[in-house]
TrEMBL record:
START domain: residues covered: 249-484
Database matches in PROSITE patterns: HOMEOBOX_1, HOMEOBOX_2, START
SUPFAM superfamilies to which the protein is assigned, alphabetical: Bet v1-like, Homeodomain-like
Gene3D superfamilies the record matches: 3.30.530.20, Homeodomain-like
Species of the source: Gossypium raimondii
Main location: nucleus
GO cellular component, as recorded: nucleus
Coiled coil: 112-144
GO molecular function: DNA binding; DNA-binding transcription factor activity, RNA polymerase II-specific; lipid binding
This protein's name: Homeobox domain-containing protein
Family, per entry: Belongs to the HD-ZIP homeobox family. Class IV subfamily.
Region Disordered: start-end pairs: 25-61
Ranges of residues in domain Homeobox: 51-111
Length: 744
């Protein structure tokens, strides 16, 4: 035992030369066999003879130490043959070689253990410090709902105290469950123990769902498991796409699943059922909902219709040139969804992803979303709606996506959802054999009609404002544009494929900013202005651009209005998009005719394109200012949007350069279909027996001061308002319209 202790000490305080200490002993010459040496001493003592006097030791020479260290790095465990070779080469005994390697290995092991102990001690100190910080945070936590400390006293881990705390928590849970049952209208048990009821068992009562995304009072959010294929474990709750949203009220995932399943069940039935649930119009064949039949067939599960609200419900079916899965992926991505419908959605975000689907598919994907829906008119308020979106694969070739409004209660959003709520709406997508998909779109909403100007009320009630026809028309036009873009036969002159894509991207940004300026989207943070000499039918807004390279720096003023035009949509669209007639209304043309340098088609039809316009030269001079213009027209409306751009910037874009730094402010026109009511006409110049007419929205965005810190003057507002009025009057004169239906 003594020998082992000495070996351990040697390992702890290793000196390479110590192993080389050799006895000046004729019998042992240079022995480092410490066990043998100690054994000889012990035998001598037992025989009564005095122990031999210990000889002096000396170290290995530097050459021997260097050779041993070099060999140890290559082979720390030499065999007998290798030890004999080292012994011969270094003039050492085999036992000396053996014991040197043993002690060297012991020393290495001890050093590693020492370093590991130091590291573990540091980690332990760090964990203790983090533990102290967490204890302090828990001790100082405040409940977001009641404002009292979340942990009233120091928590004791004694069994008796734990039992008392457990009993208190059970009482709080029972009270919370009773309150939840009051809103849900059914018994709410622990979702981890009992599966959620099917739609037929507990979904006919009124459900008001509230949502929360915060701190200590939301610790139960991650513990709720959901049945019926919803995968919430293993990190299925994905990061928020927009972390600025923080809803303070708790939400019950099983309740959201119940609402989603009920909404999906209703959507499928509404997509499949025909007469008497859906009534076709005599002239246009548009399908509208029979409200009486709907009430008999379905039971409301999101509450009664608010007093004073009007119902709009439409359905449309069409063939779209795309695969169903591609459309599913687009609709489940908030950014791509908004890009697909830029004139209908001014903003869209995903608040939370409750289920990302099964495996790599979108089947059973469930997410909380918020969006701003708009009609291109300042006389229709934006519909800001929070809803859940649920995707379900019903067969190999059939998908369905449904939206339904929920109430994300939050004091900061107390004024939201006062003008609209979205009942089960969405689409059923069926893959066909010809690389097309059959899309059945259902739109069902309830809204406060009193917030809409009387000029636009017939448009909304007919479904041309937010209805299924508009969604389908936009979807077909966008995918036709995509197919046209991929075709090699449509390349414009003097522009390659990369340049064409860059120019279309610039035009897309221009159209998006125009739409956001018309509808007062929260994206650009417009401030409304109330000026005494500006009519109520004109919306004037302002904002400051400080650092956005995509538009001029300074104060931007936006003005928009909508008027009734007693001419057809096709006539008005043809006039406004014709560059040869542009000098009759456009102040940028300076009264001179304009010509199209080239255009890139975005779909079938002559009017669906992006063009570059240039004014005719005067006295041989050439202008450096060009006009970028995008136009399109479909059954639900038309758009003409344009912006002045620098010629050098356009050349960079046409060569495939980055278009995000091209500064532009868009202006233009949106044309909405004219819809007549059953009663007397609200437009004084329209014959009640004809439906020829449309609604023209005119919008301008102008830089009134290049200094962002400057103050906006009344003269600037009056100038933009005069430009708006003058443009409408010029269009009226050019089309020989003697009286425009004014908005009173």
């Amino acid at each position: 035992m003594a020998s082992h202790g000495e070996l351990r000490l040697i390992g702890e305080n290793y000196d390479p030369g110590f192993i080389g200490m050799m006895k000046e002993d004729d019998g042992y010459g240079s022995s480092d066999d410490f066990e043998g040496a100690l054994g000889n001493d012990q035998d001598t003592a037992d025989n009564g003879r005095p122990p031999k006097k210990k000889k002096k030791f000396h170290r290995h020479n530097p050459h021997q130490i260097h050779e041993l260290e070099s060999f140890f790095k290559e082979c720390p465990h030499p065999d007998e043959k290798q030890r004999r070779e080292l012994s011969r080469r270094l003039a050492l005994e085999s036992k000396q070689i053996k014991f040197w390697f043993q002690n060297r290995r012991t020393q290495m092991k001890t050093q590693l253990e020492r370093h590991e102990n130091v590291f573990l001690k540091q980690e332990n100190d760090k964990l203790r410090a983090e533990n102290d910080l967490l204890r302090q945070a828990i001790a100082s936590a405040i409940c977001n709902n009641c404002g009292v400390p979340a942990v009233p006293d120091e928590i004791s881990y004694e069994p008796s105290q734990l039992m008392i705390e457990n009993s208190r928590l059970k009482d709080e849970l029972n009270r919370a469950r009773a309150l939840t049952n009051k809103f849900l209208g059914r018994h709410l048990s622990s979702s981890s123990a009992n599966p959620s009821p099917s739609p037929s068992q507990g979904l006919n009562s009124n459900v008001e769902v509230v949502v929360r995304r915060t701190g200590f009072c939301g610790l139960n959010n991650g513990s709720t498991s959901l049945p019926m294929g919803f995968e919430f474990g293993h990190g299925a709750t994905m990061p928020l796409m927009n972390p600025s949203f923080a809803y303070e009220m708790p939400y019950d995932k099983s309740a959201l699943v119940d609402v989603a399943l009920a909404a999906m069940d209703e959507l499928i039935k509404m997509a499949q059922m025909g007469n008497p649930l859906w009534i076709k119009g005599f002239g246009d064949g548009m399908e509208t909902l029979n409200l009486e039949e709907y009430k008999r067939t379905f039971s409301s599960f999101i509450g009664m219709k608010p007093s004073g609200f009007t119902t709009e419900a439409t359905r449309e079916t069409a063939m779209v040139p795309l695969r169903g899965l591609a459309l599913v992926d687009t609709l489940m991505d908030a950014n791509r969804w908004a890009e697909m419908f830029p004139c209908m959605i001014s903003r869209a975000v995903t608040i939370d992803v409750l289920s990302s689907g099964k495996g790599v598919t979108r089947d059973n994907a469930l997410q909380l979303m918020e969006a701003e829906f708009q009609v291109l008119s300042p006389l229709v308020p934006i519909r800001q709606i929070q809803f859940i979106r649920f995707c379900k694969q019903h067969s190999d070739s059939v998908w369905a996506i449904v939206d339904v409004s929920i109430n994300l209660s939050n004091a900061a959003n107390a004024l939201m959802f006062v003008n609209c709520r979205r009942l089960p709406s969405g689409c059923v997508i069926q893959d066909m054999d010809n690389k097309y998909s059959k899309v059945t779109w259902v739109e069902h909403s309830e809204y406060d009609e009193s917030t809409v100007h009387h000029l636009l009320r017939p448009l909304l009630s007919s479904g041309f404002g937010f209805g299924a026809q508009r969604w389908i028309a936009t979807l077909r036009r966008q995918y036709s544009s995509l197919a046209q873009l991929m075709s090699p036969d449509i390349h414009g002159e003097d522009i390659n494929t990369v340049g064409k894509k860059s120019m279309l991207k610039l035009a897309q940004r221009m159209a998006y900013n125009f739409s956001a300026g018309i509808g007062a989207s929260s994206v650009n943070k417009w401030d409304n202005l109330n000026v005494g000499n500006v009519g109520e039918d004109v919306r004037v807004m302002t904002r400051k651009n400080v650092n956005d390279p995509g538009e001029p720096l300074g104060i931007v003023l936006s003005a928009a209005t909508s008027v009734w035009m007693p001419i057809t949509q096709q006539t008005l669209f043809g006039f406004l998009r014709n560059e040869r007639m542009r000098n009759q209304w456009d102040i940028l043309s300076s009264g001179r005719p304009m010509q199209a340098m080239f255009s890139v088609a975005k779909g079938p039809g002559q009017g669906n394109c992006v063009s570059i316009l240039r004014g005719a030269a005067v006295n041989g001079s050439d202008t450096n200012m060009l006009i970028l213009q995008e136009t399109w027209s479909d059954a639900c409306g038309a758009l003409i949007v344009y912006a002045p751009v620098d010629a050098s910037s356009i050349r960079v874009v046409m060569n495939g350069g980055d278009s995000s730094h091209v500064a532009l402010l868009p202006s233009g026109f949106a044309i909405l279909p004219g819809v007549q009511t059953d009663g007397p006409s609200m437009q004084p110049d329209i014959d009640e027996n004809t439906s020829d007419g449309c609604i023209l929205t005119v919008g301008f965005q102008i830089l009134v001061n290049s200094v962002p810190t400057a103050k906006l003057t009344v003269e600037s507002v009056e100038t933009v308002n005069h430009l708006l009025t003058c443009t409408v009057e010029k269009i009226k004169a050019a089309l020989s319209v003697t009286q425009l239906g004014s908005v009173e």
